[in-house]
């Protein structure tokens, strides 16, 4: 239980990619970390692209990055919605400033783009947003997982096993 005592936020909104939310959440929990789901509305149930529900335990507005050790941003279509909220962008910026692990997979890069934290950062994502990532100043690589300091990125669901491990390693300080 190398992550015992660690706390992580996982962002949710409708049309998140089901596996890209739940796989990392369970992977982090199985190593002992506490994970809180957060959405625009506390206690609202959001539905993934394939119908898997996720109920937000907190609203974005009531969270403070100082109270957490890392943040997970799932892909799907949810990131295009999530990126529009200043509370989320501030959270991501605060995690970035504190150099705490930020996990993003697939289309989740859109949230980091809108938070304006990718200048000079080496990342990956779904190839569909490669141009967006590069236009935000990122150095994009077509690899299953890319870790650049505290930012851990992955392309798509087949990359979830190495992504989950890389995020847990970052949380553990390894």
Automatic annotation (TrEMBL):
Gene3D superfamilies: 3.40.50.880. Residues 6-167 form the DJ-1/PfpI domain. CDD domains: GATase1_PfpI_like. This is DJ-1/PfpI/YhbO family deglycase/protease. InterPro entries: C56_PfpI-like, Class_I_gatase-like, DJ-1/PfpI. Belongs to the peptidase C56 family. Coiled coil: none annotated.
């Amino acid at each position: 239980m190398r992550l015992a005592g660690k706390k992580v936020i996982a962002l949710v909104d409708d049309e998140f990619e089901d596996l890209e939310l739940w796989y990392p959440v369970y992977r982090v929990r199985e190593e002992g970390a506490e994970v809180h789901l957060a959405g625009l509305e506390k206690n609202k149930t959001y539905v993934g692209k394939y119908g898997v529900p996720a109920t937000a335990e907190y609203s974005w507005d009531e969270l403070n990055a100082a109270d957490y050790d890392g943040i997970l941003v799932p892909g799907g279509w949810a990131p295009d919605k999530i990126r529009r909220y200043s509370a989320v962008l501030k959270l991501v910026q605060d995690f970035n400033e504190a150099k705490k692990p930020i996990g993003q997979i697939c289309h989740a890069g859109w949230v980091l783009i809108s938070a304006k934290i990718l200048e000079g950062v080496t990342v990956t994502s779904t190839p569909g947003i490669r141009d967006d990532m590069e236009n935000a100043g990122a150095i994009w690589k077509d690899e299953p997982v890319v870790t650049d300091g505290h930012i851990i990125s992955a392309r798509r669901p087949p990359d979830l096993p190495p992504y989950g491990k890389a995020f847990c390693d970052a949380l553990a300080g390894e």
